[in-house]
Design brief:
The chain is of the alpha/beta class. The chain contains 10 helices and 7 strands. Helices cover 46% and strands 14% of the residues. α1 packs across α9.
């Protein structure tokens, strides 16, 4: 049931690729809650996805922008303010990419040129996304900026590779820029650490099926869905959370607080007995 908790608010959603993506579902749910939206993604991603369908569904416009380019970001924000007729109230950063992961490189054998590219796309783009808004004063007071993260920023997942480093930097940027933007304009900046989620990007990680099953078995509530993550993000855009900032917020069914569950132990003991 919709409650119009974003009525009168305007925002930009980065990274919607297809119906599986969390960003796509955030846009849909934000629209249902009364928000006006601008959709954006890198030009190459726009060619790969079906974002125009989302634009029709949410009565939005699409403005291409490479989030690693300050020129593109300034153009995006200025055009968005023209479209909205005002400053805006929220930003979702749902961007991540690792060439090392795609190419099957091990963490101890990374190609550093690829590492730099992945860091720029996955983490530094968040800094640039915030800085562009900060510099041109594009956001209203108590606006909300969210980036999507993962628990690998705090824990080792053997094939998550340099994306773990990228997510750690992403979370640090949220804290540091959250301080500065909070002082300037009461703008809040947070990251949401989501469960492994069946999306086009997530499924590309080697061993994803194992990640997904393990997290689902370990979490008392099971894995959080992309839909539920989107609804959580909507609450963080709303005025109900106007004093929440500089936080990494776990939305993972309890996984991040678990050590061992009965289900995981039972599965492990079955394999141990089977090997005897």
């Amino acid at each position: 049931m919709e409650n119009n908790i974003l009525k009168g608010k305007k925002g930009i959603v980065f990274g919607a690729l297809d119906k599986k993506s969390i960003a796509w579902k955030v846009a849909v749910n934000a629209y249902k809650e009364g928000a006006e939206i601008v959709l954006t993604n890198a030009p190459i991603a726009l060619r790969m996805g079906t974002i125009n369908d989302l634009a029709k569904q949410t009565n939005s416009i699409v403005i291409p922008a490479d989030a690693t380019s300050m020129e593109d970001l300034n153009n995006l924000y200025n055009k968005s303010m023209d479209y909205f007729g005002s400053k805006f109230d929220f930003i979702l950063h749902s961007i991540g990419m690792s060439v090392n992961v795609r190419k099957g490189k091990q963490y101890y054998d990374m190609n550093y040129d690829w590492t730099q590219k992945g860091m720029d796309v996955s983490a530094m783009s968040f800094h640039k996304t915030i800085k562009a808004a900060f510099d041109i004063d594009a956001l209203n007071e108590y606006a909300s900026i969210i980036a999507l993260s993962y628990v690998a920023a705090q824990r080792v997942f053997h094939s998550y590779n340099d994306m773990a480093d990228n997510k750690a930097l992403l979370e640090s940027i949220a804290r540091s820029f959250g301080y500065h933007y909070g002082l300037k304009k009461n703008v809040r900046v947070n990251t949401v650490s989501q469960s492994p989620t069946i999306t086009t990007a997530g499924s590309g990680v080697d061993g994803f099926d194992g990640f997904y099953k393990f997290a689902d078995d370990l979490s008392p509530l099971g894995n959080a869905s992309a839909e539920d993550c989107a609804k959580y993000c909507v609450t963080l855009f709303s005025d109900y959370t106007k004093m929440v900032t500089m936080q990494n917020l776990f939305h993972d069914g309890g996984f991040s607080s678990m050590g061992m569950s009965q289900q995981v132990m039972d599965n492990y003991m079955k394999s141990v007995k089977g090997n005897k």
